[in-house]
Specification:
Distance between the termini: 33 Å
Helix content: 40-55%
Oligomer: single chain
Number of strands: 4
Radius of gyration: 19 Å
Number of helices: 5
Order of helices and strands: HEEHEEHHH
Structural class: alpha+beta
Strand order of the largest sheet: 1-2-4-3
Amino acid sequence: MPPKDTIESDSVIRDRSVILRCKDGHALWLSKKALELSAPLLRDIEGGVIFRGENGEPAGLLLGGAQSLVKEHGMTEHDLLRRFTATMGDALSLGLTSIHNAGFRPVSLAFFERLESLSSNVLEKGTHCSQTICQMLASCMRC
């Protein structure tokens, strides 16, 4: 993954708070803006590493426990649904019908529980839901 200077060279994400999480959950790459919003970072943190440039400033790569120093904005219900719909759409297009997420977070569990409840209501009680959610649920129910 790229250091903050490489992230800043991309005109689409330049000057935005961007946090990229390694798929194994052990590292974060931060844009300059994300670093600014999380400042000041400790010099050292037990159980973590903050990579620094020659000038001693954070380079945008945090490992292990250092990730807890980053101030992240929470995901909205819409963000979670968009992520889920895109992921399931990609998976289904490849014939995959189940996915394991090793980086599971409590917010994800709560989202899946709400989704399960909604799908049960739609299927059992004929409850109405938004077109997007119904389409997504219909796709998933075919699994």
